[in-house]
Amino acid sequence: MIQAGHDDPLMHREFYASVNPGIDGQGTYLGNPIRSLGDTFRDLEIVFNPNQPGTLPAAELEAVMESKDYQALEEERSTKRQNGASKNEIRLLSLHQHALIDKALQKHRLNEAEAAQTHDPNHDDHDEKVTRCAPVSFSRLKAVTPERRLLSDLLFQSAPLRSDVGKEALQLLVDLFKKTTETSVRPGLDRHECKHKTDARNEVHAYRCLKKHLARLHGFAEYCFLCNEWFPGHHIWDQHCSNHISKRNLPLDMHWMRLNGCSILPGMCPDCLGDDGLPPSERFQQFVELGEWEAHLLQHDGSKTSGGLFCGHPQCKLDFDSRKDWEHHRYDIHRIQQRVTRKRKRADNGGCATTKLEIQLEIVVNTSSYFPKKQKR
């Protein structure tokens, strides 16, 4: 609704919709051709904007988190936590902090939409694709949402509802409605292929277990989380990695994420992807554990100098003048969060002590917005 200029989704029903939807009162009064229910329904459609920012850019997020209102809530949270306040009171203050971020995000989206509609000279379409803070790409999500992946192709075809295409699309919608979770077990990591008694939907366990089993059969095996397929043998895997890198069909978001507590999107390294001196398998390395991915990124961060700040992702290849610009780019484009530190004075028993307060930039892309919990019927 925000693209239509309304924050309240009930705006049309309460202020615009007719009491009797079968009567086109507006068309009758203005002398226009009478619209049918189908025409009225199509008039309510809002065109999907794929370039709408999913989160605040890192620079604006820092500004909100350093604002007086946000810091006042942070100080109050710290005081209540020290005084032994209840979790509900502390959680309420956190909700107020997130409300400040959401308000800034809505304002940012409106400014971006207005600039795009008015053809602002400072708003470049090419820059929009590079610098916008996009949500998680569908190229990564479709690997664990087979129904949505098929619907993304079928729903854009012009065909009667009773045709084979229409029936298949309708059946996929019904299957998607009946599922308790929208994510599915990846092909090749199915529960029946693992002999151990563990969580049937734990993809990390299934991946490690099946990798050992296939390595005993073929000497080596690796799984591609973008293609949902096993590749036995070093040569076959290297060739597959080279195809991904050469065709540049790689997602921009590199962050590790767990979906519905079971499926994962493995983390990747943008610097390794752009390093031509590494073998294809090392450039395309997938990190199934969050700790392994973070430790690998820390190694690259430690080697960065003021003269070597660049993004090695094949679709970026950008140089940066300052470390802050480099960190903002990694957060906005590749969804790699950074830590910013500031100093504050805190009263202590021995007087005033200066301590560091670490504020971790949050990835505001919440998986619940993509996969909301379904109500029990």
- Using only CA atoms, what is the Rg? 25 Å
What are the secondary-structure elements, in order, as H or E? HHHHHHHHHHHEEHEEHHHEEHEEH
The general outline is globular
Strand content: 5-15%
Distance between the termini: 27 Å
> Based on helices, strands and strand pairing, what is the structural class?
mainly alpha
Strand order of the largest sheet: 1-2
Helical stretch tally: 17
- Describe the largest sheet: 2 strands, antiparallel
Nearest-integer average pLDDT? 77
Q: Approximately how much helix is present in the residues? A: 40-55%
The number of distinct β-strands equals 8
| Unreliable sequence segments | 125-131, 340-373
- By oligomeric state, this entry counts as single chain
Protein name: C2H2-type domain-containing protein
Organism: Colletotrichum chrysophilum
Could you please describe the fold and organization of this structure?
By secondary structure, the protein is mainly alpha-helical. It has a domain at 192-336. Helices cover 46% and strands 10% of the residues. The chain contains 17 helices and eight strands. The chain has helices at 11-15, 25-30, 37-43, 58-65, 68-82, 87-117, 125-131, 138-141, 146-154, 164-178, 203-218, 234-247, 270-273, 280-283, 290-303, 323-332, 367-370; strands spanning 221-224, 229-232, 257-259, 263-265, 310-311, 318-319, 339-348, 351-360. The strands form four sheets. It has a two-stranded antiparallel sheet with strand order 1-2. It has a two-stranded antiparallel ribbon with strand order 3-4. A hairpin with a 6-residue loop joins strand 5 (310-311) and strand 6 (318-319). Helix 4 (58-65) packs across helix 6 (87-117) and helix 5 runs antiparallel to helix 6 (87-117). The longest helix is centred in the N-terminal third of the chain and has 31 residues, at 87-117. It is globular, with a radius of gyration of 25 Å. The two termini are 27 Å apart. Residues 125-131 and 340-373 have low confidence and may be disordered.
